[in-house]
Amino acid sequence: MGRPETIKTKNWQEETAVSEQQYQLVVRKGPKPGQIYPLLMTVITLGRDPMSDIVLPDPEVSRQHARLTLTDDGYQLQDLGSTNGTFVDGIRLGSEPILLQHGQEILLGSGIALVFEVVTAAEMETVLEELSENPDETDTGDLPPLPDIRQAGTPRPKPETAVFSNPASPSPQTDTPFVAPTDRDPDARRRRNTILAIVGSLFLLCCCCSFLLFMYFYGGDWLLQQLGLLP
Question: Domain 10-137 carries which CATH code?
Fold first, then answer.
């Protein structure tokens, strides 16, 4: 009867020790060295996307770079097909997840280095208290804080009133009388008269030739006799 009670006590102690284990990531290299990310969810995504659980704003990090999954043995790390790769202690991960051990270094690309740590529940509680006292240390996706417009004594800026000026009235248009151009160049007038005379002479010549051809074809010898060209 005493042996089962001993086994039960041992299992309870092991379960208590496991339940007291907590996990966190510490930034060793990156935009905020020394920053701590408590791992409090079953599935945690790491990446450059603002929708990631842990946002790492670095150009070497993919939008969805890696994923942490909590198992009975601890957290497993899996690369999500990132461009620059995920490394654990210098070894690049494939598509299969690996179980992380305390103190291992996680490298995302070449710009972000994280250290995986196993801590006690008391240590995690201390970290959470510090983060609650300093909310700026927690990751918010690097979004700028919203201005507090409800602070007393802070006057609100008055909206600017747009001033519209009356459009300038168009100047009245005066009708300018059309003046026909006059030909005051005597040379131009002389050339025009010469051209008209030549055209008129050619027209009369064409008429005479046409009449003679008509009479020749339709009048026959009678026309030639009248002209004295035939006896």
Answer: 2.60.200.20
User: pLDDT tens across 83-96, in order?
Assistant: 999 999 999 999 89
Instruction: Give the domain ranges of the chain.
Output: 10-137, 188-226
Tell the residue number behind the tokens 């700028």, with chain if given: 144
**Letter string b/e over residues 151-183, b meaning 16 or more CB atoms within 10 A of that residue's CB:** eeeeeeeeeeeeeeeeeeeeeeeeeeeeeeeee
Stated pTM of the model: 0.51
Three-state SS for 40-100 is CCCEEEEECCCCCCEECCCCCCCCCCEEEEEECCEEEEEECCCCCCEEECCEECCCCCEEC
Q: What are the tens digits of pLDDT across the range 41-90?
A: 999 999 999 999 999 999 999 999 999 999 999 999 999 999 999 999 99
